[in-house]
Amino acid sequence: MSRGGSLPLLRDRGDGARAHRHGGARAEQSADRRRGGVRGRCDLPGRALVAAGAAAATAMRRAERVGVPFGGHSFPYAPGVLRLSGDPEAVDQRVLEHYRLWKSHFVRPRGDGSCAVYAPDAAYPYVAEAQGYGMVISALMAGADPEARDVFDGILRYVLAHPSSGHPDLHAAQQDGAGRDVGGANSATDGDLDIAYGLLLADRQWGGGYRASALRRIDALRETELPAAGGPIKLGDWSSGHFDEVSRTSDWMPGHFRAFRDVTGDLRWGEALDTHLSLVRALQRQYAPDTGLLPDFVVDAGSDPKPAPGRVLESEHDGDHHWNACRDPWRIGADAVVSGDARARAAAGRMGRWMCAATNGDPGRIRCGYRLDGAAYGEGASGAFVAPFGVAAMAGGGGQEWLDALWEWMAASPPEPDRYYAASVQLQAMLVVSHNWWPP
């Protein structure tokens, strides 16, 4: 189905994977790419990841001299945030093991000095969301993986080679196996939010020209995807007509908005932060007072926000807590543990406490899909649904025993090669839970 920029309607495959929706333009000039800090080639998986233990990780941290090395735990989380009961070095080692598998399964060289995160369970093998995840993950793993900057720069090279047709500083959100833009070559908000955030992390880690590239992308996001009159962020630079009033709750990333506000001094990002946290609270109170769960999509977003009444973009579950909104406890919870914002903490805590009670403290009973009233309809369990509640637990969503149980489930659930989405969400949740997440 075409809709003037033309993102295809996507379908949940019904097998625990999630079909994606995306679509993006004019090439950025080679000078821009140089300013973006791209260097070298992405020869992966050429050199093995050296992560044989805490001593090896410490040695690599010394050698690479990054700004915030993985395992340093130097950024203090907000007061009152729960910590895992286990040994921090053992926890870090488990994250390294998951990262090694994630990298071997999904980071693929493209033959032109670039690499990209492969998404076998998405609508197309290369999607913007995956590249954003890859940039954030590789920047956070610096100091433990000597190839982290090569991975980051290889993905950035790929992103710059596929600009959106809607704005040259955004990313075309879908490519086929041959690397051709498909689905209208438009942007997807979540992908560009993470790409910009990843660039800010890279600037903190390695310096160079990453910051200038991040600022251009942040400006493009504000220009095309933040409504001038307020209201939640749009689906992409293609949103217009009916879709101008649709927003995806998993694009409501308060930690990103907070970072963009602080880096740019642009008050629009501060307004976006307040708008989205207020919307979360209102939706929870009106539509999920018992569970706190959020829907995948919100309609009438600028006037009378409410859960989608059925299919508006992806499936009949667009108004349920489905394969998009499953990320919300992680996104909101990460901001809560880093910033200490009482609004984020209350929202994440509400979701987490309900899930702990609904499963009687057993993470294996979390299902892949819920009505907002808590009725489960999905199968389970998947890291995409389970792991985000570990972040929510840190923010007051269920207590110490629940947090430790969620971690044990994650630690015992390695990435599967055909489940990029679950593996990527789980790994990022593990980075938060292990105290290896920090603002740029």
TrEMBL record:
Highest taxon of the lineage: Bacteria
Spans annotated as Disordered: 1-38
Matches recorded under Pfam families: Glyco_hydro_8
Keywords, comma-separated and alphabetical: Glycosidase, Hydrolase
Molecular function per GO: hydrolase activity, hydrolyzing O-glycosyl compounds
Signal peptide feature range: none
GO biological process, one term: carbohydrate metabolic process
Compositionally skewed regions (Basic and acidic residues) per UniProt: 29-38
SUPFAM superfamilies with a match to the protein in the record: Six-hairpin glycosidases
Entry's family note: Belongs to the glycosyl hydrolase 8 (cellulase D) family.
Protein known as: Beta-glucanase (Endo-beta-1,3-1,4 glucanase)
Source organism of the structure: Streptomyces himastatinicus ATCC 53653
